Every structure is written in structure tokens, then in C-alpha cells.
Amino acid sequence: MGQITIFYILAFLATACSLLVISSKNPVTSAIYLVCDLFILAGIYASLQAEFVAAIQIIVYTGAVVVLFVFVIMLLNLAPNEQSSLGLKLPDIGFTLLTVLSFLIVTVLLVNEQSSVSGGALGPPEAIAQLGGNTRAVGMTLFTKFVWPFELASFLILAAIIGAVHIAKKDPKPADKAYGNLKASNREKAIYGSP
Amino acid sequence: MGLNTPALAYDAFLVQLLSSLALFAIIAVLCLQIPPIMVWVERRGPAMMQRRKGPNRVGLFQWRFYGLLQSLADAIKLIWKEEVVPTGANKPFYHIAPIFAVFPAFMIACAIPWGADITVFGHQIPLSVIHLDVGFLFIFAISSLAVYAVTLAGWASNNKYALLGSLRASAQMISYEIPLGLSLIPIVLIFGTLDLNQIVLAQGAFPWQWGIIKAPVSFIIFLVCMFAETNRAPFDLAEGESEIIAGFHTEFTSTKFAAFFLAEYVSMFVLSCLAATVFFGGWQAPFVPHDFLVKTFAGFEWVASLIGAGVLFLKAAFFMWLYVWVRWTLPRFRYDQLMGLGWKFMIPLGLANIFVTTLVCAFIYFK
Amino acid sequence: MNPYIPVLIVMIFGITIGGALSGLAYLLGPKKYDKVKFEPYECGVPIVSQRDKMSVKFYLTAILFILFDIETIFLYLWATSFRDLGWFGLVEIVIFLVILLAGYIYIIKRRALEWD
């Protein structure tokens, strides 16, 4: 079984999962299909000998981002019995398919053109093996060729941290602030009065 | 190796395929035996600590086996219990949640190296089913999927205690994944590889060469995260039976309950193996170098590998006992204490540990 | 042999074992319907729907987890190529961590991780 065959099988599964993500009525079902979808995408990366990217795909996307989605769904109180009206109708699916396909075709054309000119950033497989495996090759490239994007990524994460904390944590009212500064043992007294 | 001819290549493929199947079968059978034995240990152990008797009645004719058959009896009873799916539960997710629990546990169990490579019919076979270029990042990747079992189980049960338990457990699991990740970075810095088998080889047979001596703070962080990741005492808030009954698996009965039980014990075992592999020399027998064993059993090198597997099992067994020991020694944490410990103490400690290790490594390696 | 064949084998068998455990519960054991038995286990507390709001802290924890997870991944990447990169890589990662440390201090100062 050639690499192309594996790619087509995985790509078919991934597309099917993606369609199920957008067509499920229940948001948690969508989230679980998204998990499957991202897992299969990791499989595609692995089949392209990009093991490190595959591992990150699972660690960051399946293991963290979709967990956040699931939490948000729970936060919005969509009980299992109540099905929200997020389901799509057949024309919508057709339209989405059309959009996705045309986007894919354009991307493939663009990527093909680029990769035929420059090759991958890491170079051919032999060069990767010489560097001591895929992870080390990615590391060496990231920390030498792509230093600035890497450092800028830290600013991106910083901005995300500040944004998340700012949105989730309203400035406490003065009374709450005083309460928050109390030691745990004194908090009960603050609520119930001293015995 | 002379694998140029197609016939030989096919031969090698077949040998490797069959050996990895056989190895998986052994590991799967071993993992399925862990819950019954650990249940017995978790009853007899505290009984010993508290001067009680513990289970000692179930036996075969006149032999009692120290009550070991109690677990077997429990298992048989559990299988024949009625499945009670609560009204209003989300049926599909209720049924697939146990799969989400068992599947990652078995997958990471297969990534642990159990000994030096062995030679079968002239082909080198590594003693771990899964060995990838990304090394133990694979274990992190797959174990991060275990969160879904907890979340789905709690959410699909339509029970508020289950939902509370699952939210607590999943928040706890993801919070402690960060210090767990940070604690192993000094190991990568020191041994310069992500491959578990190479980390074992780099450690050698003598205790002063092991990871625990080279990165003691890492070991402490890893140990705490081990308990938190598996939701075990003193971090078993997910179960907190005095507050939320049994947490996310409250509504699961029969073999579905057994599946969660199995997943918990298998992931405990895998983390124990990982701790032994990374910090205690893995399959290397203490004070007995592997080369010496290979020389002793010249012609039967597989015996040396088998001894390695036994040694790793004993080291992991110590950590399994530690789980029980700690459970019956320490009281349960409060939830804010748990999250505070993870975010405000473990993460800064992990970063400081990396910083110090980096400086030391830099002065050793950059000359 | 392709290293992913064992992964596939383990995946298939892992799902099979999980599915078997999940399915056995349905196949074996008695099936007697009883309305009260199939109610959610509530220990005498009246059944409330799951519409109670969940604390926003879980959500914040999940977001912060993503961000610190990415940081950990970068650290792994750097740690594997640490010896080849030398002092240059060390300086890079220190700058990276100092910027993130500012974010961490902000989290602590805003008491975003207080569970009270």
C-alpha cells in the first residue's frame, strides 16, 4: 500500500468527520467528531514523516483546544436532552462542500507550485535523518532559521494570556477584594460572623 | 543487515509483525491482570497498616491464597450485573465513554521499553510495541486524550454529581499535564534524547547514574503529577465520595464500571513504569550492568532481556505500592489547594528546575 | 517495518477491548425495567436539571492550559536540540520564557487562579 493510498483513505475519513462536525445537531457530538478529525489529521502528518507535527497536533489540538470547546459547551449549559438548532440543512452542506473543495483546490495548486520550487523547510528525508530525527530537525530549523517568528510567538501567547484573564476575571468589587485578601480561616467569619 | 532481496525483506516484515503482535498480547494480558491484583493489594495493604484482616474468606476448597481470589469473585460478580443506563442519559456517549477511557491507557502501555532489543530468527526486535521518532511525546499526546473519557462520562450521565466530578477531574488532569511536561524537560536536556530506550541505556546500571540523582527536583514534580493525573489520593477530588458520590463514573455499572477501573489502574501502572524508566534506570538491574548479563547468558541473550523486563516490573510495582501507601496515609486535598499547588507551586518550580539544569548542562556540554 | 503498523494494531485492539467491556454490560446480566431504578442517582437530593451555570474558572483553566501547553512543546523542541544550538539557543529560550513569565506574573497578580 503506497503512501498515496494511505493519504486518500485518511483524507476521506477526515473529510467525512469534518462534515459530521458541521452537520451534527448536538454540540458535544460535533466536538467529538472534531477530536476524531484532528486525530486523523495527525495520522496524515505522520504518514508524511512529520512525526513531531503529528504529536503536537494531538497534544495541542485534541488534548487542549477541543477540551476548551467541550468546557465552553458545558458552560453554556446545553444539556444532553436539549438539541440546539445548530444542525445544517442539505443545501447548506452542499454549499459548504463547494466552498471547502474550491478552497482546497486553490491551496493545493499554490502549495504544489511553492514546494516544487523550494522543497520543504527541513530538506529531504536524508538530511532529517542526519540531524538525528524529525524532532531535532524541526528544533534546529525553528531556532536558527525562524528565530524571529519563534520569539514573536511568545508575544502572541502573552497577549492571549492577558486577554483571557482580562475577559474571564472582572475587576473585583472593593468588598470582594477585602474578602479575597482575608486568610481562609477568617473567611467563614466574614460570612457567618464570629461564633 | 542483508535485507536487500524482497524475500528477506518480507521475512523481516513478517517476523516483526508477529513479534509486535505477540508483545502486545503479553502486555494486554498483563494490563488486564493489574486491576484484580491491585484491588487485592488495596484491601490487604491498609488492612495490614490498620491491624485489620482484610478479605481472607474466598478461597478454593481449603486454600485461601490470602484472600487473593476475592478479586476474582468480585470480577465475576461485576460481569453478571445488570446495566443501568439512567433515564435521560445521552446513550451514544454513555456507551463510548468507556472506550475513550480504555483505549489511551492501552496505547501508552505499549510505548514503554521492557528490555534490550532481542534477536528473533536473525532480526532485531525492540521490546516495546510502539517506538516512534517522537519518543515519549507520543505518551503525552495519547494520554491527553484520556480527558475526554472523564468529560464524556460525566456529561452523558445526566447526573449533576457526575458532571461536577467530571469537570473537577478534567480541570485537574489538564492542569497537572503542564508540570508533568515541564518535569521531564531536564531529563531531555541531560540525556539528549526523547527515546525512552536510549534514556534507559544512557542511565546505566548504577544508581548514581540514574535520573533521580541527576534531576531530583524533576522526580518530585513527576511524582506529584503522577498522583494528580490518575486522580488518586490525596488528589482524588474527582471521586470525593463524601461530596459527589463517586464522581464521573457514578452512573456506570457492570463492565462499564470495570472499564473505568481498568483504565485507572492501567494508567497508574504506565506512569509507574514511566517513573521507573526515566528516574530509576528502567529495565537495568541495579549494580548488574547489561553487558555482564549478556556475557553470562551468551547464546541466550533473551534471558538478559527477560531479566530486564522483570526488573522494570519490580520497580513499577514499588510505585504501585506507593500509590496505595499514600492513599491510606494522606488526607484528601481541598480543590483550591489542589489547583493552587499545580499552578502556583509546581509550574514555577518546574521552570526554575529547568533553568538550573540548563545552566549546569550548559557548563558541562558547551566547551 | 513501518513504525506505524504497531500503532495501528494497538489502536484497533485497544478500541476492541474498550468496546468489548462496554458491550458485555449490555449482553450479559439481567434486564428488568423499573422506573425508580433508572432515575439518576441523587442520594435524596431533588433532581435538578443541568442548567446550573458552571464556574467560569474551568474555562479559564482550559485556556491557560492551552497556552502553557504550547510553551511546554516549544521547550521540548529546544531541549532536544539544546546541545547543537549552544549558547545561542539558550539566550533565545530565556527571552521566550521571560516574556511568558510576565504573563504568568499577570495571572498571579490578577488572582485569576484563586478558587474562592
Q: Which secondary structure elements does this structure contain, and how are they paired or packed?
A:
The complex is a heterotrimer of chains A (195), B (367) and C (116).
Chain A (H helix, E strand, L loop, with lengths): L2 H21 L3 H21 L3 H25 L14 H29 L6 H6 L3 H11 L2 H22 L5 H8 L2 H9 L3
Chain B lengths: L5 H44 L19 H11 L11 H19 L8 E3 L2 E3 L11 H7 L2 H11 L3 H32 L4 H8 L7 H4 L1 H14 L11 H4 L9 H26 L10 H7 L4 H27 L7 H31 L2
Antiparallel strand pairs in B: 1-2
Chain C lengths: L3 H24 L28 H25 L1 H4 L1 H23 L7
Q: If you had to describe this structure to a student in words, what would you say it looks like?
A:
The complex is a heterotrimer of chains A (195), B (367) and C (116). Chain A is mainly α and 195 residues long. In chain A, 78% of the residues lie in helices and 0% in strands. Chain A contains nine helices and no strands. The longest helix of chain A is centred in the middle third of the chain and has 29 residues, at 90-118. Chain B has helices spanning 6-49, 69-79, 91-109, 137-143, 146-156, 160-191, 196-203, 211-214, 216-229, 241-244, 254-279, 290-296, 301-327, 335-365; strands at residues 118-120, 123-125. Chain B starts with 5 loop residues before the first helix and ends with a helix. The mean pLDDT of chain B is 84. In chain B, helix 3 (91-109) runs parallel beside helix 11 and helix 5 (146-156) packs antiparallel against helix 6 (160-191). In chain B, strands 1-2 form a two-stranded antiparallel ribbon. Chain C is an all-alpha fold. Helix content of chain C is 66%, strand content 0%. At the B-C interface, helix 1, helix 3, helix 6, helix 11 and helix 14 of B face helix 1, helix 2 and helix 4 of C.
